[in-house]
Design goal:
By secondary structure, the chain is an all-alpha fold. The protein is built from nine helices and no strands.
């Protein structure tokens, strides 16, 4: 990395610009929600909590600009889903027309990101905060963390359905699909594997540049 690139990476203008975008999307998301505000809260809370945590911890741990951009994309996916409710997002209907799906599959994008983003986050934290250097262990641990998050989220959905089956139907977004939970976790798995493939490509590129 060049000196100028390093200075840009250390500056705060880029993360602040992304934060402004996230706040703008949040404001849009909460206006005239398509379902109930309970559904919006259930869907938007993970995004809101994550943004708040990033702001509170940014001085102690500053992620790379690339990672902030990935996290913003994940936040946008969550807030769009919260605004419409996942089963009613227009993009999901377009996908249904384009690919001949039998249901609105926008929620699968969210679960893909549920694997993709935590995997990248875990690797960045482990690389910088631990002595772990083996890429195989980094990949295994980050994959395990992403799948754990997916499993916990599915448990939360199950508990929500038990507490209030009627009002949480839109939050669950099963659309009558019996294998919804399993397919959600499979999409998370695909997202995590895609992240690991990207990291592996980066690792090989870095290794190829080492003088021999």
């Amino acid at each position: 990395m060049s000196k100028n690139a390093a200075n840009t990476e250390k500056g705060w203008w880029f993360p602040l610009a992304l934060l402004a975008v996230a706040v703008g999307v949040l404001i849009w998301s909460v206006i005239n929600v398509q379902d109930t505000y309970l559904t919006w809260m259930l869907e938007a809370t993970p995004a809101i909590v994550w943004v708040v945590l990033l702001v509170l911890t940014c001085k102690r741990f500053r992620f790379s600009n690339w990672m902030y951009a990935v996290m913003l994309s994940h936040v946008v996916v969550l807030l769009v889903g919260a605004h419409y409710s996942y089963a009613e997002v227009p993009l999901g209907y377009w996908m249904q027309d384009w690919f001949g799906f039998s249901r609105n599959n926008y929620d699968k994008i969210g679960h893909f990101m549920q694997g993709f983003t935590p995997t990248l986050i875990s690797v960045e934290i482990l690389r910088r905060k631990t002595a772990l250097k083996s890429f195989n262990w980094l990949a295994f641990l980050s994959f395990s963390i992403a799948m754990m998050i997916s499993a916990v989220y599915e448990i939360i959905e199950w508990l929500a359905s038990l507490s209030n089956p009627t009002d949480t139907e839109a939050f669950l977004g099963t659309q009558g699909y019996f294998w919804d939970t399993q397919s959600d976790m499979f999409c998370c798995l695909i997202g995590s594997v895609c992240a690991i493939i990207i990291l592996l490509s980066e690792e090989k590129l870095r290794y190829s540049k080492i003088p021999r």
